[in-house]
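During the reporting period the student researcher (J.K.) took over the structure-prediction task from the postdoctoral fellow and processed the backlog of single-chain submissions. One of the processed entries is reproduced below for the supervisory committee.
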Amino acid sequence: MKVPASFFFLAATMLVAPAAARDGQDAPPRVELNSPAATAEDRAVLHAFARCVAGRFAPELFVGGMAERLLDRDVQDGTLGARVALDPDGSPLSTTDQAEIMSLCIVRAAPTEVETLFSTTPGSREETTALQAIGPGIAPCLARGAELRVNRPGLRAMLARAAYRLVRHNAAGEATQ
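J.K. obtained the following C-alpha cells:
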C-alpha cells in the first residue's frame, strides 16, 4: 500500500499535539472527520494510522494514552474531582472486573492526586512521586482478598481510562437531567 504524504502529516500532528497543548503553544491543525473538508483519503489515512498504532502497542497502554489525551482536551485543570464525583441519583456505571472497580474507586477517592499524575511525563521522577502519592489509596479500593499486580505504565493507563469513563458517564447524566 502506498502511503500518502498526508499520512505523515497526520501522524506528526497526532504525536506532537499533546506536548504542544501542555507547553502552552498553539495547537496544531485538526482534521475534522465530520466536516466536508475530510476526504475519503483523509479517512483512509486515519484508519491506516489507527490500525498501525493499535498493532504496535499494548492495547491497555494505547487506550490509557488516548484516554489521558482526551482528558487533557475535555477537563480543565483542577476540575477532575467535580467531573468524576459520584452522583447518588445518577445511573450506575457498568464494570467488567476488579481492576476496573479499583481504578474507578481510586479516581473518585483521590482525584487531585490522579490529576497531578496526568500532568507528569511518563517515566519521570515526577510521575514516580505522583504514583507514590496514589499508592496508599489502592488497598482500600481493592476487594477483600484481591491482589493487584500492575506496573507503573499499566496503573497510569488504568487510571486514565477510569477517569475518562467517569467524566463521560457524568457528562451523559448531566445531559439527560
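The committee noted the following: The chain is about 65% helix and 0% strand.
J.K. will present the remaining backlog at the next meeting.
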